[in-house]
Amino acid sequence: KKIDSTDFLDSIFVSKQKLFPTNDSPVTRSELVDIINKLKQIVSEPNIDSLTRFLSYDVNLCQAIFNTLKANHEFEFDDNEMREFITSLYNDIQPLILKLKFAYNRPRPNQLADSYDINLYPIPSKGIKSPSYPSGITISAIVILEVLGNKHPKHYQYFKNFIDDVSISRVYLGHNYVSDIDYSFEIAKAIVTHKAITHKYKF
Fold first, then answer.
1. Which residues are CB-contacts of 41 (< 8 A; sequence separation ≥ 6)?
2. How confident is the model over 14-63, as pLDDT tens digits?
3. Which among 94, 109, 139, 168 counts the fewest CB atoms within 10 Å?
């Protein structure tokens, strides 16, 4: 049974208080400069492994997670069951993420950079048409990998490192602010421990 996003809203949605710096704050401007520096770093690296990996998360997170786990020979699983598990969990939380995005409606870094007369050119993506906060890919990765980590506690640190790699990729690609990522961890934590998730995915 698919989880209804309204199951989450009462306990996860944090009214209209701002959980990130205002658009005109010095902190936001500093975040934009940091994004530009990270963009320059990732596109100028002679080894393109990081950029290739980051782009795979952006293009299809579920497939990227599956491929990474499949390549790690410490894990043994049925391919179809793992695909279904990852996809089901991902699909269950997307309506909630979109509701939060449009409730807060934070501009993407490149959109806000224009008002500062700052040139910020993110790596092209189909997924940045929605508002910036919270980071949907970050939340999705945390939820999926935390649940897997709880199911496989021996490999929990591996999943934590995987989460960190996905989350920082959003800044390096120019798609999210660091503050988007920071607060997305808090939202994801609430989702992972919500009874709708713990009951359906049993851990």
1. 172
2. 544 557 888 999 999 999 999 999 999 998 887 789 999 999 999 999 99
3. 94
Write out the two tokens for 113. Answer: 């950079």
Give tens-digit pLDDT for 96-106: 999 899 989 99
Residue given tokens 């501009």 in the structure block:
107
Rounded CA Rg of the chain: 17
DSSP secondary structure, 92-104, as one string: HHHHHHHHHHHHH
Peptide bond into 134 cis (omega under 30): yes
CA distance 111 to 113: 6
pTM, rounded to two decimals: 0.91
Q: What kind and span of H or E run contains 33?
A: helix 26-44
Long-range contacts of 128-131 (CB under 8 A, 24+ apart): 128/175, 130/98, 130/101, 130/102, 131/101, 131/102, 131/104, 131/105, 131/106, 131/107
CB 12 within 8 A of CB 190: yes
pLDDT at position 5 over 70: no
Distances (CA, A) of 145 to 19, 78, 82: 24, 17, 12
Place of tokens 């919500």: 194
